[in-house]
Design brief:
It is built from two helices and 23 strands. The chain is mainly beta. The termini are close together. It comes from Microbacterium mcarthurae.
Amino acid sequence: MTPESPVPYRLTRVGVVMTPEPGNADEAEGVLNPASGRGPDGQLYLLPRLVAEGNVSRVGLARVVVEEGVPVAVEREGVVLQPDRGWERGADNAGTEDPRTTWIEALGLHVMTYVAYGPLGPRTAVAVSEDLRAWRRLGPVLFRYQDDLDMDLNLFHNKDTVFFPEPVTAPDGTEAFAVLHRPMWDLGETKPGQGVRVPAGVEDERQSIWISYVPVASVRDDLANLTLWEQHRFVAGPEFPFEAVKIGGGPPPLRIPEGWLVLHHGVTGVIDSAFSQQQKVNYAAGALILDATDPSRVIARTPEPLLAPETDDERSGIVPNVVFPTAIEEIDGRHFVFYGMADSKIGAALLERTD
């Protein structure tokens, strides 16, 4: 790492890999923001967010077609998660949205975080699978109360959540699974008039990346404890121009020699209601490097985006001007990032070191 290249990586577009299927009602309002994973058959799969009319989202499964070492298309294999639980549906809304999946070898499971768009708005939930096809819901996430924050994190909507692939050391010194998340501080979105509230010690009210932990021992006792998060810490907030409005996490952190590589999104523009399909924003992809032993500590970050909306597919769609990275996979020794394009299609980009 050098001052000129604090994060020695670049992203290079390789093309569009998935577009809405004509006549498919589940995809009428776009395919976007996929999770990913390798099935027991060794094949690479995407788990795209499929958006039906009325902004109702499901999670699909699609095998990635690779030609000459590059992802070029997908073959659909159905829907694996849909809002069929009461807490995933409201009177006028429903959704299982924006899945992120992490293969956690210590558990022998794919662990999915997703957004349940239920009666009170977006809420993070967890599901697990051995094969990417059959998912067992563990339920909505609960944040243990932490008195030094002077705030209950369960009050807030929360998105952009993703687990690390291997245990780390928690602040209390125990072995833990770590998870990144992005609290939304505007309580007025849930109860009008409450306004923006932030925990003690937080001076910047813009939405930022946080980390929480789950003791490994507790998960070994009961897998359902993956939903009980504790030891909450601020990680990173908006700092550079392309992050002026807010930032949020992306794919599962990738272990690199310097620590953990975290691709994230930075947002500029004007945010309407948190629940509306935005029309006046710009989402670009940047990167953080987190310390290997203390992943709550940022040791480097990109002052400018690695990928910003420039192509027609990224600039025109349900939500224009969006590059939203959500998955990283290795194909023939190279890493590719899959990302949402204008909330309408899914693209891929090659992730390479620059040193």
